[in-house]
DNA sequence: GGTGCGACCTAA
DNA sequence: TTAGTTAGGTCGCACC
């Protein structure tokens, strides 16, 4: 990790650590100093430094010394600002591992450190499966619930509720652990036949003992049996409970010690460490790729129970008529609830009522927490949304809160995120689309005229090293590394380093990769111009359009309408949100029955005009559905039944049944489409 | 022109 | 010689 080793000393590679500590576009010393210390530091070339150093009479040597001193002191200042040493020490204490191991080793090591301390007094030892055993473990079958959002602009309050530490809470509430798991129900029926598969190894249960236990077990929704805590309290529940309790204590203590800044920092580090370890405990159980003791039965049960918990919460919210609420989105442990025609104050009150109701509906310590109210907001797709956030009823000014969209991503340049954020803010505050249009057009003009800030147009992406790419990969960072190597073989970027680049104009038809330039090359060559067309049509407009198309606005048209002679007319790409066919509150549109484009009619004009194309499109769809249907295996994995005649499978949650159901729906659709084609001619 | 794949980065 | 997980969206290119 540190690349430098000194016996008896801990050597810290600050740059590598900062990659995890702060999210930045580039991790050069200057950039980190600017963002963490809020100080501008100069960067001189080696050539310049050498010149100064070698000048006669050492006239400028002090500059070189000062330059390096600034860096040394700056590094220390950065570490101090982030409380790196304090935090690492505290983590070491909380997890019970060495200081250096906090930085150098992964989260499995942390979990094991805590878990084995509890296991040993109970005379339990950990299984250590071989690589082969791990590879032969059953594949996971359960996935968290992520609802398809109703993708549109919401002018009414949307409240966001989420379960507090859901996975740890589930372990505690239902006593899910390696040490309490009896395996799958279907295996227990044959327990008298001997050992059966369990996790990476196998398990044998004495049938007589099993009979005595029959009233002291619970069965997870995916059919895995656990003993209740009166039989044996699981190690993971004990550990996680301990962690969560301690965290609550630490947080209380933080409130009491607000004056003592040093103590407060220490306590903050402590509670953060506790939170991290609680969250990765689940990851440990389902680390099927690299884990040292994964157990799919335990991991899957946690996910499946969490899913069930969220589903129950959704139905409770939607079926309580007095709230008049509608769940519009949810992911793993969160609920987004639309309250039509309610005020912000109502939202806070009702949201709290919902939290209390759902919390009461679940065993301790599962708790639904009021997170925030969005007013207004846009739900774009799964895991992508943005809104004006209020966290308390008396908060006057909202906070801009974005998840997953380009304002928080590092794979676009700053110009994109700045323009997107500004546009959304204009929309949210003024609700005036023409104001947004004016702003966007003025920014495009700036780019076209070459007045844009070049700093804002720099992309930076992580370099994976020469061996990190598939042959033929077309990646700017790799391209630049290759070019660097030609000049100086020491100048290859480090693995994990974020490599900056720009896109310049070139002759038409050239692939994008050949328009990639390093910033210093770009600056030193006056003939190079920023590729304004690329920046506008490929970077700035598409993310804007993903938001504003939901309001029925065509952002690309704004660009085309700009008074300018030499512009290139861009083609608006069809994005997922459009495909999914939002019905915005401003326009009544629907999806074309054939191509799923937005249309005012049942079938869009394009499909109407070209019947042959329609036939091809539909036939492709039909064959896809049929393939999918035929691929469904006919033996239900969880109930071992034959679900063709739905009678044999009693479990409503049976995943195969679900897939069959979907498959049948698809087949019905295929049939309808066949009829449609027949009618067409 | 559609599709599949690789690359990147984020949500949870 | 050590590594927590999966889901999801988007872009650019190669291929058919």
Automatic annotation (TrEMBL):
Cofactor(s) required for function per UniProt: [4Fe-4S] cluster
The protein's superkingdom reads: Eukaryota
**What PROSITE patterns does the entry give?**
DNA_POLYMERASE_B
What's in the keyword line of the UniProt record? 4Fe-4S, DNA damage, DNA repair, DNA replication, DNA-binding, DNA-directed DNA polymerase, Iron, Iron-sulfur, Metal-binding, Nucleotidyltransferase, Nucleus, Transferase, Zinc, Zinc-finger
A single Pfam family it belongs to is DNA_pol_B
Per its UniProt entry, what is the enzyme's top EC class, as one word? transferase
The GO cellular component terms are: nucleus; zeta DNA polymerase complex
Residue span(s) of domain C4-type zinc-finger of DNA polymerase delta: 592-659
Instruction: State any single GO MF term.
Output: DNA binding
EC number(s) from the headed UniProt entry: 2.7.7.7
Report the catalytic activity: DNA(n) + a 2'-deoxyribonucleoside 5'-triphosphate = DNA(n+1) + diphosphate
For whether the record's keyword set contains RNA-binding, the answer is no
Its annotated compartments are: Nucleus
What GO biological process, any one, is recorded here? error-prone translesion synthesis
Q: Which residues form the DNA-directed DNA polymerase family B multifunctional domain?
A: 98-549
Q: Which InterPro entries match?
A: DNA-dir_DNA_pol_B, DNA-dir_DNA_pol_B_CS, DNA-dir_DNA_pol_B_multi_dom, DNA/RNA_pol_sf, DNA_pol_B_thumb, DNA_pol_palm_dom_sf, PolZ_Rev3, RNaseH-like_sf
Q: Which family does it belong to?
A: Belongs to the DNA polymerase type-B family.
Listed name of the protein: DNA polymerase
């Amino acid at each position: 990790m540190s690349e430098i080793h000194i016996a008896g000393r801990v050597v810290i590679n600050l740059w590598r650590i900062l990659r995890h500590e702060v999210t930045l576009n580039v991790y050069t010393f200057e950039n980190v100093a600017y963002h963490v210390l809020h100080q501008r530091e100069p960067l001189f070339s080696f050539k310049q430094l050498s010149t100064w150093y070698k000048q006669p009479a050492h006239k400028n040597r002090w500059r070189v010394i000062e330059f390096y001193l600034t860096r040394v002191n700056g590094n220390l200042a950065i570490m101090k600002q982030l409380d790196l040493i304090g935090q690492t020490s505290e983590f070491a204490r909380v997890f019970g591992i060495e200081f250096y191991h906090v930085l150098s080793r992964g989260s499995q090591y942390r979990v094991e450190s805590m878990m084995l301390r509890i296991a040993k007094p109970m005379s339990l030892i950990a299984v250590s499966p071989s690589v082969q055993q791990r590879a032969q473990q059953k594949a996971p079958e359960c996935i968290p619930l992520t609802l398809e959002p109703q993708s549109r602009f919401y002018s009414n309050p949307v409240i966001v509720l989420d379960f507090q530490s859901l996975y740890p809470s589930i372990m505690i509430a239902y006593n899910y652990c390696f040490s309490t798991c009896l395996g799958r129900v279907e295996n227990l029926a044959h327990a008298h036949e001997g050992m059966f598969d369990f996790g990476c190894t196998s398990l044998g249960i004495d049938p007589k003992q099993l009979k005595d236990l029959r009233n002291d077990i619970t069965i997870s929704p995916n059919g895995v049996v656990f003993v209740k805590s009166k039989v044996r309290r699981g190690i993971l529940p004990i550990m996680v409970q301990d962690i969560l309790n301690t965290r609550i204590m630490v947080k209380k203590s933080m409130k009491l010690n607000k004056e003592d800044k040093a103590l407060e920092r220490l306590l903050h580090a402590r509670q953060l460490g506790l939170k991290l370890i609680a969250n990765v405990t689940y990851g440990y159980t389902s680390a099927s790729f690299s884990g040292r003791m994964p157990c799919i039965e335990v991991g899957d049960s946690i996910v499946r129970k969490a899913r069930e918990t969220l589903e129950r919460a959704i139905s409770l919210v939607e079926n309580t008529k007095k709230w008049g609420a509608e769940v519009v989105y949810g992911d793993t442990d969160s609920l987004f609830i639309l309250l039509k025609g309610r005020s912000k104050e109502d939202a806070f009150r009702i949201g709290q009522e919902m939290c209390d109701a759902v919390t009461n509906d679940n065993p301790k310590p599962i708790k639904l927490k009021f997170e925030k109210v969005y007013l207004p907001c846009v739900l774009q797709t799964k895991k992508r949304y943005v809104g004006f956030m209020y966290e308390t009823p008396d908060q006057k000014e909202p906070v801009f809160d974005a998840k997953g969209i380009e304002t928080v991503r590092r794979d676009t340049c700053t110009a994109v995120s700045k323009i997107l954020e500004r546009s959304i803010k204009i929309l949210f505050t003024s609700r005036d689309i023409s104001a947004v249009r004016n702003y966007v057009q003025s920014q495009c003009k700036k780019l076209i005229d070459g007045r844009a800030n070049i700093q804002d147009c720099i992309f930076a992406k992580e370099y994976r090293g020469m061996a990190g790419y598939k042959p033929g990969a077309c990646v700017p960072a790799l391209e630049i590394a290759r070019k660097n190597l030609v000049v100086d073989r020491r100048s290859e970027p480090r693995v994990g380093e974020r490599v900056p680049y720009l896109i310049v104009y070139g002759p038409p038809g050239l692939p994008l990769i050949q328009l990639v330039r390093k910033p210093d090359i770009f600056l030193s060559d006056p003939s190079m111009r920023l590729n304004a067309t690329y920046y506008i049509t490929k970077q700035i407009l598409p993310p804007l359009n993903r938001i504003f198309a939901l309001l029925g606005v065509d952002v690309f048209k704004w660009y085309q309408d700009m008074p300018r002679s030499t512009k290139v007319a861009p083609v608006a790409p069809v994005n997922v949100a459009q495909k999914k066919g939002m019905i915005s509150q401003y326009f009544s549109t629907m999806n074309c029955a054939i191509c799923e484009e937005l249309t005012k009619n049942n079938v869009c004009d394009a499909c109407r005009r070209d019947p042959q194309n329609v036939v091809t499109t539909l036939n492709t769809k039909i064959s896809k559905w049929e393939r999918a249907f035929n691929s469904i295996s006919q033996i239900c994995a969880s109930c071992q039944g034959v679900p063709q005649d739905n009678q044999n499978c009693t479990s409503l949650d049976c995943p195969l049944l679900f897939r069959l159901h979907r498959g049948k729906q698809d087949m019905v659709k295929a049939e309808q489409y066949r009829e449609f084609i027949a009618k067409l001619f």
